UniProtKB/TrEMBL annotation:
InterPro entries: Bact_Solute-Bind_Prot2, Peripla_BP_I, SBP_2_dom. It is found in: Cell envelope. Belongs to the bacterial solute-binding protein 2 family. Its main location: other. The keyword Ribosomal protein does not apply. Residues 31-57 are annotated as: Disordered. Residues 1-22 form the signal peptide. It comes from Paenibacillus nasutitermitis. CDD domains: PBP1_methylthioribose_binding-like. The keyword Signal applies. This is Methylthioribose-binding protein. GO terms for molecular function: carbohydrate binding.
Amino acid sequence: MKQWGKASILLLAFAIMVVLSACGNKANENNNTAGGNKTSNQEGETNQAGSPEPSDATKNLDALKGKKIALIMQFNTGTFSSQYIQGVKDQVTKFGGEVQVFAADNDLAKMASNLDAAINQGFDGILIDHGQAGALEAGVKRAVEQKIQVIAFDADLKVPEVTVLQQDDAKLTEMTLNKLSEDAGGKGSIVKVWVAGFAPMERRNVAYKAFLDSNPDFKEIAAFGNANNPAMDAQSQMEAVLKKYPNKGDITAVWASWDEFAKGATRAIQQAGRTEIKVYGIDMSDEDLQLIQDSNSPWVASAAVDPISIGSVQVRYLYQKFNGDQTDETVVLEPTLVKREDLPALPEKVNTTQLSEHVEGWGSSEQGYTDLLKELEASTAK
């Protein structure tokens, strides 16, 4: 019995060792397999099929591509508007999206209808150019309720979740009027070309009135303006004013609150041979620059924000919204004063793309251009 007991104990111990060895090998196999998968997922994020899993950053970029954008415009008049549209389209294309332009020909009812159409057609985002709250607010609120992102430019909208871009209209006005005062020696007679009913125009008019209040040696002798066919209307009305004030010295300068108005007034003054009258405008385009460069032109200065940059910046804030970023209610775009004395004389022509070579502060803006959007643009370009 004693011998048998010792043998039994030895056999039992051997059996336990065999079992433990087998379990150990199995555990090592499992650990190796689990460790291999873990390493693969950490370094290459490989799924069961062996292909890499996209990172969160890549998923974010992919989600921003292929967006369909509606651009709802109150009017599409002149080269400023065409360059603004160019800025919008170029930036959306660089982000891998598409743009459709809806122009309302200065008809607010049509603009509201175009906004409704964009909502019903399921655009991912809506850009608004000008317009009035009375015509647009209901549609904008409906777009926001349907999770369509909206960014406006120069519109008097105050809707939660909607960012509004605007030029610093007070500064635009002050820049041009201060230059006018400097050139005129602090006194004179002014013709104002302006139109009511537009948020930026209203802000410019407030600053204009403040200038007259602070400079009593300047007098306004005439005022006019029409947003329909603005350049042609300004030209014909300026012709009438010139007939009313036919003598040299009767009119010191024209202050034009929009470059379309400045173009019309400039043509009327040139044709009448009254180039002693100087023109000071707001906004800038390639066509405007050539008129300012011309030494025979009465248009001598204009304050503006690059229209291409305005379009680009507006798009960037829309894409920030797409990404879920919080954006300010109002974004102010800083202007630059462009003067004839800063530009080369004709026949060398300068366009707005080259203007930064001659005028400090002009050029492509980095506003709204986040690191993620730079990555999106780079990935789309590949």
